[in-house]
Specification:
- The protein has about 375 residues and is an all-alpha fold.
- It has 2 domains: about 140 residues; about 160 residues, no CATH class.
- The protein has 11 helices and no strands.
- α2 packs antiparallel against α5.
């Protein structure tokens, strides 16, 4: 079966981190404005077709038993690939043995030429036999994959009609499913207890809004990881083509997400604390405790801001890249460190202002 040699271009990686959250947020907003009625939709049907059509999931989504037809072909690909992997080691071993006797024959004495030639011919037969088995299973995998691909192409043209008929059928049978959305906020122990959560001023609201928008933006990156790791699993186990960029791209992405959404988490008081004492304090007591401990916060975050800014500027000046085969740019990743520290500093200032206002109001 042909391997997948796709390597994610750097420009596509960086542009995807920018445009994917924008598109995803727009689609989510449309979904909220038009709540789902539980009937099949064209986008979801094609999403299933593109990501799991090889298992007939798009057919099962439309409640069609024809989805079972895809499963034997998929299992056939897995079986043929497994056979290819088993015989590949034998092919490699016989090739190495053939090359060894060929080198030895080239250096053999004329008196031993006939014996060396016989050894070469014997190793050549072993290699040809092993390679023939490998080629057979490789060809079989390709043929089964071609049939499966053809079935998917046919379904790509049939899907609009299938979705339309299924929607009409469920409408005639008064099928409607109530979709319950999860609650907006779920607070766990040790979080969501800061006294400043209910405090608002014009200046602090401006900072809160910035960090909320940035936090909501980078939160969509987690969805990218689902698609990226799905591709890695498929490429590795179905096409025998593990990538050299998925893991690196994702751990860099999550590192940037960690830095950029820290201020949003701080604004929502989602950094877990040991609250054995804090939880027992009054609103004013919590504000005073936060003011006192803010000294340590600002020492840490200002140090981080200064050192990470120098660290990032060095990377920008040299145009730093990774040392892996993918060779992605490192300087944008390191730039998120001072940016995240700056956002945390701003949020710390906003929280300090709120806490001071709370203490003054309580005193008054």
């Amino acid at each position: 079966m042909p391997s997948i040699s796709f390597v994610l271009p750097h420009w596509l990686y960086w542009s995807g981190l920018i445009f994917f959250p924008l598109i995803a947020a727009w689609l989510a907003r449309r979904q909220m404005e038009n709540p789902p009625d539980g009937r099949p939709t064209y986008p979801i049907a094609y999403l299933f077709w593109a990501l799991a059509g090889y298992l007939g999931i798009h057919r099962f989504y439309l409640r069609s038993a024809w989805g079972f037809v895809f499963i034997p072909f998929f299992l056939g690909i897995v079986y043929c690939n497994a056979q290819t992997l088993q015989v590949r080691d034998e092919t490699s071993r016989t090739r190495a043995a053939l090359e060894a006797v060929q080198d030895a024959a080239g250096q053999a004495d004329p008196a031993d030429a006939a014996k060396a030639k016989a050894e070469v011919e014997a190793k050549q037969r072993d290699f040809d036999r092993a390679k023939g088995v490998t080629d057979y299973w490789h060809t079989m995998t390709g043929r089964v994959a071609m049939v499966l691909a053809l079935m998917l192409v046919v379904d790509a043209f049939l899907l609009p009609g299938l979705v339309r008929r299924r929607r009409e059928h469920e409408l005639q049978n008064r099928f409607r499913q109530t979709v319950e959305l999860p609650p907006d906020e779920v607070h766990e122990g040790g979080v969501g207890q800061a006294a400043s959560l209910g405090m608002h001023t014009k200046f602090t609201n401006w900072i809160d809004d910035i960090n909320t928008r940035i936090g909501a933006f980078v939160a969509w990156w987690a969805v990218i990881a689902v698609f990226a790791y799905y591709y890695e699993v498929m490429a590795r186990y179905i096409f025998n083509s593990p990538t050299n960029w998925v893991h690196e791209s994702m751990f860099l992405m999550f590192g940037m997400q960690y830095m950029l959404c820290g201020a949003f988490a701080y604004k929502e008081d989602q950094h877990v604390r040991v609250d054995v004492v804090y939880a027992q304090l009054s609103r004013r007591g919590k504000a005073i405790a936060d003011i006192v401990t803010s000294v340590f916060f600002f020492i840490f975050i200002l140090t981080m801001l200064w050192t990470s800014a120098r660290f990032a500027m060095d990377a920008v000046n040299v145009g730093e890249h990774s040392f892996t085969e993918w060779g992605v740019q490192y300087w944008p990743v390191k730039l998120t460190m001072p940016i995240g520290a700056l956002l945390l500093t701003m949020q710390g200032v906003a929280k300090l202002i709120k806490d001071i206002i709370i203490v003054r109001e309580e005193i008054a």
